[in-house]
Design a protein that fits this description.
globular; 151 residues; Pnp Oxidase, Chain A; 50% strand; 8 strands; 25% helix
């Protein structure tokens, strides 16, 4: 449990307060992916989207998502929180990270805020040129770091 907590905190510390990631969503018919501007607070990820978009419809049909950027993959579940300006922390975090997007979109009536609760995360690490897979299961508070041997 302590090993999980320490490494989970290190993951988010390295992640930073904001990052652009590919968000994959799916309904019964289609899978789609797009770049998203996310902000992070205490291991939760937040993004905004227009409620008339395919992405929004897919999130309503199926709240399970996947995110990836660089060597990091995250699987999680989303929940809608309402309009982005009504969240206590999101506007400040988003404005600091993405001032142009904040000015263009956040105030629009159709924008909706989503919170991602990570369920599983995996990233590749290289130590001395040796590849390792680092995996996290948040429900079980399980952590594993294992050398990748390709077998």
């Amino acid at each position: 449990m302590e090993e999980f907590a320490a490494n989970w905190a290190a993951l988010w510390s390295g992640f930073g307060s904001a990052r652009k990631m590919v968000l994959a969503t799916a309904d019964r018919e289609r899978v789609s992916a797009r770049m998203m501007s996310l902000v992070q607070q205490s291991g939760r990820l937040y993004f905004q989207t227009d409620r008339t978009s395919r992405k929004y419809a897919q999130l309503c049909a199926n709240p399970r998502i996947a995110l990836c950027a660089d060597n990091l993959q995250i699987e999680g579940i989303c929940r809608e929180l309402g309009h982005p300006l009504h969240h206590p922390a999101f506007p400040g975090l988003f404005r600091a990270a993405y001032p142009d997007s904040f000015a263009r979109y956040t105030h629009l009536a159709n924008e909706r805020l989503f919170e991602v609760t990570p369920l599983y995360a995996k990233r590749w690490l290289y130590r001395g040129g040796i590849p390792f897979e680092e995996s996290f299961d948040t429900a079980r508070q399980w952590y594993e770091l294992r050398e990748y041997r390709g077998q």
